[in-house]
Write a structure and sequence with these properties.
Helix content is about 30%, strand content about 25%. The protein is α+β, with helices and mostly antiparallel strands and about 750 residues long. This is Glycosyltransferase.
Length: about 750
């Protein structure tokens, strides 16, 4: 069959009168029944010559070999052409509205903006009524757009109307503009320069000058920037760094150069000239100078390497952070032409992520009077070990806070630092060694081994002795084909043996299911079936199970999960047993191996979403976080462990307000408010056949219930949902892929 004939057969399913035909950049693979895209610009073109104007709903499902891609459509008329992008989700139907004006004669469809193979299980382009479109447009703004949170559709429509009046355009044009902004997905690898130009939030120069002149800022004294200069550094690199200091809006800084003995004569002569030209620049030969100077609490110390630059508003942004002992900010890198790339948008203070990776990087400032206690042994580093010094400084801050709780660490979510080269550690002192040393200093007995990504470590915490009993609660109703693989896999594929498995039966009537429950209860003494003869309420069922359980640790387990290997429960118990840790979540996969749950990000879609959903199983994720133990504000209860004392202290799950959805997020937020750290680990891995047991929210009654529970979460936790401390406000709340906001 020809490519053209195949295109008709595959693409015409959504309309008898509408067909697309492929460009030569596509080939058809009849063996696998899929298309091969030979170019990122390959597209299908419509045959239809006249398109009726109005609102259309695009429904698209693309199974493809490349994860982080988008589909796009181009609508062509005689005098105007416009494009829309459509982010794709693996295994999930994507929908979006588009308004087609008069005069459109052809549509070009690009299934993915990359080379690779794909198939199209579902593709429809359906005309919808204006009232239907209006309802969906406003609801998406309320769910996704940060300016429309926590309001009604009437209030959202009024905002659109006011913005249309201010812009001098129609309501329809304005709502389209606002709606389309919720689909923008800017990849930090490909779109960072565009984001910098259009979206980066920087302080207004006039406001900075006014604040400085009016003394409205609480200035933090003097900033000391120590700059190790090696034999390979050039005059130009040194000038780049010093110029970024001299261009600051505040002049309360000093640069202390630390030249190596092997510095080139040209560089040494240039340093001597700089000292004469600018009294703020000095030279020191002593790596212990900061400690010997006895700096006060109004002084701050940081390291720069020649070639590094501060942003023009760095010192202004740092001012006003009174009470902090250590400050770190977001950062990026620059290439040989000075172009910025590779941004690193960091979470707020995240101790377990720090034990996994030196995520704080190089944009770090420490208060002068705290430096002697936090500075690594040996004083300031040479140019080749700056990364090690900064990593150990952060770990020392963690150790000091662990022992006394007196170290106040603040994160500034703004790019204040531009690195000239990637953050690296010298081979002589890798991160595993640094973490191992820090844990010894904290008197923590844990094993430290290499992590799964570069410059990372894995801390294997011990399981208490005697081993705590774990109560695994598995709610279910009928569906033996789901329940049996779950229960059998847990019993057969779990190395940690000291657990009880409580099947919480919610009015099952299937004879096969009832027979299996009876059989497995008799077969394994760890299994017990409890009957819950009430209407489905996930929170109530699990609270009932917790009351009738005996374990020191409660495990909330969906009846559609299956452990991948035997280590999963040992890892989760070792983490949940730590007194500073609250809820512990696992890494969950769809049956096809893509990520279903890499932790929860608050605010995505209005309430919460799953981090890195649909990424491939072996991908590192944003900044390696898909492979690193870390603190997250919430994790899913599809597989969640928490100590009984903590579960009971927060009152368990919320039965009255959250019968079905978001009860796990609510539980985690209550635990977070206790001051405990919720945690996600990639070393507990399970398959999750998501929501098979209760089904999707696809009826009016279910949708009404889902909206009610979402409203409760917004009312109860709105400020925290919009500013997840384990995320970064520069990253999107419209998608789950850590793309730019």
């Amino acid at each position: 069959m020809s490519n053209y004939a195949c295109a008709k057969r595959v693409l015409a399913s959504f309309s008898k009168s509408l067909h697309f035909y492929p460009s030569p950049a596509f080939t058809w693979d009849p063996h696998y029944h899929r298309w091969n895209s030979l170019s990122e610009h390959a597209e299908f073109l419509s045959e239809k010559s006249v398109w009726l104007p109005g609102w259309y709903m695009i429904e698209l499902l693309v199974d493809r070999s490349v994860t982080t891609v988008a589909a796009s459509f181009r609508f062509e008329a005689d005098k105007r052409t416009f494009n829309i992008d459509m982010p794709l989700r693996v295994g999930k139907l994507s929908k979006r509205l588009v308004y087609v004006p008069w005069g459109v004669k052809r549509v070009a469809f690009r299934p993915m903006n990359a080379e690779g193979h794909f198939s199209l299980p579902h593709f429809r382009l359906v005309w919808v009524t204006p009232s239907f479109a209006r309802d969906r447009l406003l609801q998406r703004l309320i769910n996704i757009h940060q300016d429309y949170r926590d309001i009604t559709q009437q209030e959202a429509s009024a905002i659109v109307r006011e913005r249309a009046r201010e812009r001098g355009e129609s309501w329809r044009r304005t709502v389209i503009r606002e709606y389309e902004s919720t689909y923008i997905s800017l990849c930090s690898r490909r779109n960072y320069r565009l984001w910098v130009r259009k979206f980066e939030e920087t302080p207004d120069p006039a406001k900075m000058r006014a604040d400085i002149q009016a003394r409205q800022l609480e200035l933090l004294g003097i900033y000391y920037f120590y700059i190790p200069v090696a034999d390979f550094h050039t005059v130009d690199a040194l000038d780049t760094t010093l110029s970024s200091l001299q261009n600051q809006s505040l002049d309360n800084w000093k640069a202390v150069l630390l030249p190596a003995e092997a510095c080139a004569a040209e560089v040494r002569q240039h340093i001597e000239a700089l000292v004469v030209q600018d009294p703020r620049i000095t030279v020191s030969e002593s790596p212990l100078e900061p400690a010997q100077t006895a700096l006060s609490s109004s002084a701050w110390v940081s390291l720069l390497c020649p070639g590094d630059r501060l942003s023009v508003h760095a010192l202004y942004s740092l001012a006003g952070s009174a009470g902090a002992d250590l400050i770190y900010s977001d950062e990026d890198e620059t290439d040989a032409d000075g172009m910025r790339h590779s941004p690193l948008f960091k979470p707020q203070w995240n101790p377990d992520l720090l034990l996994s990776q030196p995520y704080i990087g190089g944009a770090v400032w420490v208060r002068g009077d705290k430096l002697p206690a936090l500075m690594p042994a040996g004083g300031l580093p040479c140019a080749t070990s700056v990364g090690n010094w900064q990593a150990k400084l952060a770990l020392n801050a963690l150790a000091a806070g662990f022992e006394t709780g007196a170290v106040n660490i603040k994160h500034i979510s703004r790019i204040l630092f531009h690195r000239a080269s990637p953050f690296t550690l010298s081979p002589a002192d890798d991160y595993v060694s640094l973490v191992r040393l820090s844990l010894q200093e904290m008197h923590c007995s844990a094993q430290v081994v290499p992590g799964r990504v570069a410059n990372s470590a894995r801390v294997k915490w011990p399981v208490p002795s005697p081993q705590p009993l774990v109560s695994l609660l598995v709610p279910t109703r009928d569906g033996v084909e789901i329940l049996k693989p779950c229960v059998d896999a847990i019993l057969e594929r779990t190395d940690y043996k000291h657990f009880e498995l409580l099947i919480l039966d919610n009015q099952s009537s299937c004879t096969k299911t009832l027979a299996y429950m009876e059989e497995v209860e008799q077969r394994d003494s760890r299994v017990k079936v409890l009957r819950w003869n009430h209407a489905f309420n996930y929170s109530a069922i699990n609270n009932f199970g917790a009351k009738h359980s005996n374990g020191d640790i409660i495990g909330l387990i969906n009846n559609d999960v299956e452990p991948i290997d035997g280590e999963w429960l040992t890892e989760m118990v070792s983490q949940a047993s730590r007194p500073e840790v609250g809820c512990v979540g696992a890494k969950l996969y769809y049956p096809n191996g893509t990520i279903q749950h890499g932790g929860v990000v608050l605010g995505v879609g209005g309430v919460a979403g799953h981090a890195h959903r649909f990424f491939q199983h072996n991908e590192e994720g944003y900044a390696g976080r898909l492979q690193l133990v870390q603190n997250l504000t919430a994790v899913t209860a599809a597989c969640l462990l928490v100590r009984r004392e903590v579960f009971e202290k927060v009152g368990g799950l919320n039965e009255p307000d959250l019968a079905v959805a978001y009860n796990d997020v609510d539980l985690c937020l209550k635990v977070y408010e206790l001051g405990l750290r919720n945690l996600w680990t990639p070393y507990a891995e399970l398959y999750h056949h998501e929501s098979i047991s209760r089904g999707a929210d696809d009826t009016p009654k279910k949708r009404a219930r889902a909206l009610k529970e979402a409203r409760y979460m917004r009312e109860q936790w709105g400020p925290l949902l919009d500013k997840d401390p384990a995320y970064n406000p520069n990253l999107t709340l419209a998608h789950e892929d850590f793309s730019l906001r």
